[in-house]
Amino acid sequence: MPTTRDDDTTELEELEATVTDEILEETPARALVLLRAVGSSLRIRRALLARGYDAAAHREGWSLIQATIGFLDERSEPDEDAAVVEAMRELEAIDEPLLRIVRASLRARHPAQATRVLAGLHASTGAESVVVVATLLERLDALGESRDRGDQAAIATLARRGIDAAERDRLARLVKAAKSASPLAPIDPAAERTERERRNALVRLRGWYEEWSDITRAVIRRRDDLIRLGLATRRARSAGEAPAEDAPKDA
Fold this sequence. Notes:
Elements: H1 5-18, H2 21-40, H3 42-49, H4 55-66, H5 82-106, H6 111-118, H7 127-145, H8 149-160, H9 165-178, H10 195-219, H11 223-228
Helix pairs in contact: 2-3, 2-4, 2-10, 4-10, 5-6, 5-7, 5-9, 6-7, 7-8, 7-9
């Protein structure tokens, strides 16, 4: 029987009742670590593919994370896949100057556009930079497609600052490479999320994360892979220290 909207709402409410606010707030960062590990490691990806983790599941994770944009605080560890890591490094290096140039160029000349383009965005590190740059590009594309004279003037100003269509295309290719060709779902730059909508986004992401982190724990046996996925911690090396435990299941 197909799942109905009422069924989805009930499942969200049941999940929300089982987790604390702290766990919900930590989920985007934890999901980013898992997504990055799966996207970078062929060994991990092959193991999860046998349990149904395909490109659609990977895209869903990125899409759910983007729905919580502006509330990411944690850093992800570096990875091994050369193409993914190189793209992430370049995005991490460019997101701060990129945001600075956009802010300086639009703030005084085009304040309304500056507010819409920069809302909720800040320079980040690691996988979070991918989300920041992807969202910025989507908002700039929306300005470029707009017929509003103010929007077109703002895009023209940015083009004179070097952020023209060619540069945006180059950055978009980096975003695509960093996410292993799994594009983020587009968002409406003019839409304002209410606190309830944001919380629903966190709960949906939590549901995705709990499902795939539990499956991953059952499938992945190598401790170094579990550490890379954020599902275990490194053991203490000193003989006099107690070994570190695996990350708790509700983390």
